[in-house]
Amino acid sequence: MTPQVSETAMPSLWEEVLRSHEAVSLVEHAFLTTDSGRIADLRRGLISPGLPRITALRLFRQLSLAERQELLPELVWLASCAHGSLQTVRQLLADYPRDWLRERLETLAEPLLQAASAESQFEEYRRFLELYRFLGEDELRICLAERARQHPDDDIREAGDDFIER
After folding, report:
1. Rounded to the nearest 5°, which phi and psi values hold at 3?
2. Looking at the 3D structure of the chain, how many domains does it have?
3. CA-to-CA distance for 69 and 96, rounded, in angstroms?
4. What's the pLDDT tens digit per position in 66-94?
5. Does residue 9 have a pLDDT over 60?
6. Shared domain check, 150 and 108
7. Are residues 78 and 56 in the same domain?
8. Has residue 6 been placed in a domain?
9. How many CB atoms lie within 10 A of CB 34?
10. Which end of the chain is more exposed for a tag (fewer CB within 10 A), N or C?
11. Do residues 131 and 79 make contact, with C-beta atoms less than 8 angstroms apart?
């Protein structure tokens, strides 16, 4: 049996949370069903830190597959660096159709690895090695790890060794 709570016992902050949630839900629904510029807005949100990124990631699963596919480059970019939403980004990438993702992943990752500065290249290598492991893409992981093992940077070579042994 469910305990009974009188309406007057409900705290005012709780009521505000409920009203706010309802308002956000209505606006999000309108955004997702009528805004023809939503992909551009979400793209900007994904590449912006903080609230814009968190909001874009929250709305991401409500998009059609075709819309999510348009945003693949931004998700791959987000997968290349450490941030608070990295696990969410990896999970969203795992939700794509596997063969479709496999055909595109390396092509999107490679320019990011090439464009990385000497100071950040280690991070990109490690993040992509982690992503490939997370996705179960062993062929991509091993290929990138072998490449890392040939890199002139000691840390990148070590990352390659770490992901070959695993």
Report:
1. -65, 145
2. 2
3. 8
4. 999 999 999 999 999 999 999 999 999 99
5. no
6. yes
7. no
8. no
9. 8
10. N
11. yes
Q: CA-CA distances (angstroms) from residue 44 to 72, 83, 138?
A: 13, 17, 32
Q: Whole-angstrom Cα distance, residue 92 to residue 85?
A: 11
d(CA 139, CA 163): 12
Nearest-5° angle of CA 55, CA 23, CA 39? 35
Per residue in 137-154, pLDDT (tens digit) is 999 999 999 999 999 999
Q: Could you tell me the CA-to-CA distances from 84 to 18, 49, 57, 75, 126 in Å, in that order?
A: 27, 10, 12, 14, 16
Task: Give the relative orientation of helices 98-115 and 121-135 as an angle to the nearest 10 degrees.
Answer: 170
User: What tokens were used for 111?
Assistant: 């320019």
Q: Name residues whose C-beta falls within 8 Å of residue 52's C-beta, 6 or more positions apart in sequence.
A: 44, 45, 46
Contact (Cβ atoms closer than 8 angstroms) between residue 62 and residue 97: no
- Domain of residue 56 covers 16-64
